[in-house]
Design a protein that fits this description.
The structure is a homodimer. By secondary structure, chain A is α+β, with helices and mostly antiparallel strands. In chain A, 54% of the residues lie in helices and 19% in strands. The longest helix of chain A is centred in the C-terminal third of the chain and has 18 residues.
Chain lengths: 166, 166
């Protein structure tokens, strides 16, 4: 029990340095299930390691979170990633963990991420106000979304266009 | 007390991802204090963070290790580094910490680093066999010294040359 607690605090520190919580938007031709908007909202908790240290990813998967996938990245080839991106698993396995074993650096991002995962589970992303709120939150995360493919303005414009055709 | 223990395990995890133990060799015109070889052996425990998270470095310095310096890197400018490179401080503050709060990924490097710090304190680097042993250890660390300025062969050659002139 104590051994596990020590491991869990170790994991909090490790993830605070090496992990990330991401919300990304992928443009779709059609709205998913004909509901909501033409954007796929992808929520993802992730960490990477060089293949030499793949063990640590297996420890996260098997001894800590009991969920998630490990796979080799196509580029760079020597890197493996541990990923949890199913909202239900995030809600049941990842979020309770970091509620208990608190992050220092990434706690702000984690709190925002948590809110979005809950909104997805409650299907709030299918409403205009819910979608816009998720967009606002996502662009506050990870140093204000510097590395994003689409701008917030562009996504909002497409939503407005879709709504005007209804 | 428990709070500190949790923090210390957090730090072990954080450093396992973000920290490094390094041994580097800098060419000198003269042997230091006219003793040993014309190479300065620099031992260093270090971690970096973007200036947005400078707090975590201060936490390491003030609440965890009670030693070390924090400074802004010249390049990239937005990065701060926390560094402990005095062998005595490494021996008294850093090494006992990671003997207790064990690393997973970097434990092998830490064990090698520890051996070299002790050899420096015992002045073994001033003898030919000691210097060569440190060189062997250093080149086993951090993925076999891929990013080194000088090759092991080059350093050994200069030592051989210096010895032949004695």
């Amino acid at each position: 029990m104590t051994k596990n607690k020590n491991l869990f605090w170790y994991v909090a520190g490790f993830i605070d340095g090496e992990g990330s919580f991401n919300i990304s938007f992928t443009k779709q031709k059609y709205a998913h299930n004909n509901q909501g908007f033409k954007w796929l909202i992808h929520v993802c908790f992730q960490t990477y390691q060089h293949e030499d240290h793949r063990d640590i990813l297996e420890l996260l998967q098997k001894q800590v979170f009991h969920t998630g996938r490990i796979y080799r990245k196509s580029s760079p080839y020597h890197v493996f990633t541990y990923t949890v991106d199913n909202p239900r698993n995030l809600c049941e396995k990842i979020i309770p963990f970091f509620n208990k074993y608190k992050l220092i650096i990434k706690d702000k991002d984690f709190q925002l991420f948590k809110e979005v995962v809950q909104m997805l589970l409650d299907k709030k992303h299918l409403t205009e106000s819910g979608f816009k709120k998720i967009l606002d939150i996502a662009f506050k995360m990870n140093a204000n979304g510097k590395q994003r493919k689409y701008s917030k303005e562009y996504i909002l414009e497409t939503v407005k266009e879709q709504l005007s055709r209804k």
